[in-house]
C-alpha cells in the first residue's frame, strides 16, 4: 500500500465499535502514519488500527486456552533464544547432563532451551512448539 495518508483522508481501518474493517477518516497523523481515525459508519473516534488486535480477536472468538498458551510459549521461546549462540547448542542425548538455560539441539524437536531441572534425570525443555519433559543422565541409554 502506498503511504500517502494525510489528515482528512480516507483509510480502511478496523473500527473498535463496529467490529468491522470499514472506511474511516484520518483525524491525526504521527510520523506519516495515521494515528487517530473516525469511523464513517458510527462516527466513533479511536486510534487507528489496521486489523483487530490479538486481544479483541481472542475475546470475540472466546478461543481456547491452548492456543493462547502455545503463543505464550512461542513468544518466550523466541525471546529466550534471541541473541543466543545457536552454534553452541548441545546435542540432546538421554545420557547427557544439561543445565538450566542451556541451549540444546534435539534431533526431532529442534533447538530448545532448558527451562528447569526437575530431577537429576528429568528436565523440562522449551521447544518451538512448547515445553517438553525429557530425560537426562540416563547412563543405561534405556528410556525410563
Ligand atoms: Zn464504526
SS field, number of helical segments: 2
Counting structural domains, the number is 2
User: Would you report the number of β strands?
Assistant: 9
What oligomeric arrangement do these chains adopt? single chain
Structural class: alpha+beta
What's the mean pLDDT score?
Answer: 85
Shape by Cα distribution:
elongated
| Largest sheet composition | 5 strands, mixed
Ligands bound, unique: zinc ion
Q: What string gives the helices and strands in order?
A: EEEEHHEEEEE
- Helix fraction? 10-25%
List the strand order in the largest sheet.
5-6-7-8-9
Residue stretches low in confidence (pLDDT < 50, at least 5 long) are 56-63
Distance from N terminus to C terminus (CA atoms, Å) equals 56 Å
Share in β-strands = 35-45%
Q: Compute the CA-based radius of gyration.
A: 24 Å
What would your notes on this structure say?
It contains 2 helices and 9 strands. With 144 residues, it is of the alpha+beta class. It folds into 2 domains: 10-61; 84-135. Residues 56-63 have low confidence and may be disordered. The chain binds zinc ion.
Amino acid at each position: 500500500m502506498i503511504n500517502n495518508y494525510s489528515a482528512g483522508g480516507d483509510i480502511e481501518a478496523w473500527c473498535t465499535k463496529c467490529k468491522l474493517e470499514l472506511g474511516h477518516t484520518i483525524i491525526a497523523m504521527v510520523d506519516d502514519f495515521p494515528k487517530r481515525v473516525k469511523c464513517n459508519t458510527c462516527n466513533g473516534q479511536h486510534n487507528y488500527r489496521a486489523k483487530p488486535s490479538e486481544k479483541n480477536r481472542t475475546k470475540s472468538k472466546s478461543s481456547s486456552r491452548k492456543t493462547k498458551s502455545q503463543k505464550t510459549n512461542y513468544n518466550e521461546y523466541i525471546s529466550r533464544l534471541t541473541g543466543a549462540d545457536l552454534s553452541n547448542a548441545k546435542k540432546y542425548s538421554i545420557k547427557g547432563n544439561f543445565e538450566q538455560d542451556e541451549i540444546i539441539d534435539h534431533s526431532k524437536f529442534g533447538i530448545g532451551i532448558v527451562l528447569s531441572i526437575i530431577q537429576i534425570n528429568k528436565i523440562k525443555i522449551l521447544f518451538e512448539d512448547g515445553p517438553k519433559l525429557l530425560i537426562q543422565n540416563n547412563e543405561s541409554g534405556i528410556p525410563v
